[in-house]
TrEMBL record:
Family: Belongs to the cation diffusion facilitator (CDF) transporter (TC 2.A.4) family.
Protein name, as recorded: Protein p34
Source organism per UniProt: Jiella avicenniae
Gene Ontology MF annotations: cadmium ion transmembrane transporter activity; ferrous iron transmembrane transporter activity; zinc efflux antiporter activity
NCBIfam families tied to this protein: CDF
Domain Cation efflux protein transmembrane as annotated: residue spans: 17-207
The keyword Transferase is assigned to this record: no
TM ranges: 12-31, 37-60, 80-98, 118-138, 158-179
Record membrane topology: Multi-pass membrane protein
Cation efflux protein cytoplasmic domain ranges (all copies): 214-289
Length: 300
């Protein structure tokens, strides 16, 4: 069955590229007007947004491909590669910004048309703030690492842009031009931190990280409430692969229970879990009562 969420995620990823290009153009023009190295650093980070958006678009397209003989579990992990690439690009941008900031610190220069430049940058920052909120919301809804990483990165861009605008306003009012490269360096350090977080979270996904504690508690409760007729559930394991969630466990049933009846219990649990987590992939191994361990999920 085709995933109905695929067109939405694809449209969001494609629109992200368009928004990133528009914001880049506005921020670069603000830099051209002012000559501020801090605004240049802000524009440089927007270049990363454009490239990261293109990578995310590719990753989302690949992730929604159906399973095939070579990839029987699907392609959902492709989004993690996008997030890793984005994190690496953020780090590269941070290093380039630090280089520019270092040169400007030893050779500070005044600003041209500071008011116009700050207003333009503020307008671009507003666009980013709205788009970051939408991306993060849809990233959670679709369990998309690529969209979530894009949203977090753009949100970090918004925070640094606000700091740059405030700092340059102070520098313009006071004439302290040395604030310009200092602000650029702070921007670089902030996005360097954000890039590290993006890469770390993506690597966790590639390593088949288990679901979070809250979701795990819901899984256990759902199994417990829908396993009537069974004796116990043990060896529960979960993992995430992009938006896909995998749940597997052993279901212990009375030795005299027929295959048909145990199958009904499995279907009931599986349906409940898939209703709780859309698209969850559930694998249940049925065992006779002498395999009981007296541990795991109690059956109510």
């Amino acid at each position: 069955m085709p995933d109905t969420k695929a067109p939405i995620a694809m449209r969001m990823a494609a629109t992200t590229v368009v928004v990133a290009i528009a914001v880049l153009a506005i921020k670069y023009y603000a830099y051209v007007l002012t000559g501020s190295v801090a605004l240049f650093s802000d524009a440089l980070e927007s270049i990363v947004n454009v490239v990261a958006g293109l990578v995310a678009l590719w990753a989302v397209a690949v992730s929604y491909k159906p399973a095939d003989s070579d990839h029987p579990f699907g392609h959902t992990k492709a989004e993690y590669f996008s997030a890793v690439v984005e994190g690496v690009l953020i780090v590269v941008a941070a290093l380039l910004i630090l280089k520019e900031a270092w040169g400007a610190y030893w050779d500070p220069r005044g600003f041209d048309a500071p008011l116009e430049g700050l207003l333009l940058n503020g307008f671009a920052t507003g666009i980013n703030a709205v788009w970051a909120t939408l991306l993060m919301r849809l990233g959670r809804t679709h369990r998309s690492p690529a969209l979530s990483a894009d949203g977090r990165h753009i949100r970090a861009d918004v925070v640094t842009s606000v700091g740059v605008i405030a700092g340059l306003a102070v520098a313009t009012a006071t004439g302290w031009t040395v604030l310009d490269p200092i602000l650029a360096a702070l921007v670089a350090l902030n996005i360097l931190w954000e890039g590290t977080r993006v890469v770390t979270s993506s690597l966790s996904g590639l390593m088949d990280q288990a679901i979070d504690a809250e979701s795990d508690a819901k899984v256990r409760e759902t199994i417990s409430l829908n396993a009537e007729g069974a004796i116990e559930v043990h060896d529960l394991k979960t993992r995430l692969a992009g938006r896909a969630m995998f749940i597997e466990f052993h279901l212990v049933v009375p030795g005299e229970m027929t295959v048909a009846k145990s199958h009904l219990i499995c279907d009931r649990i599986e349906d409940a879990l898939q209703e709780l987590f859309t698209g969850a992939r559930v694998l249940i191994h049925v065992e006779p009562e002498d395999e009981a361990k007296q541990t795991g999920v109690p059956v109510l």
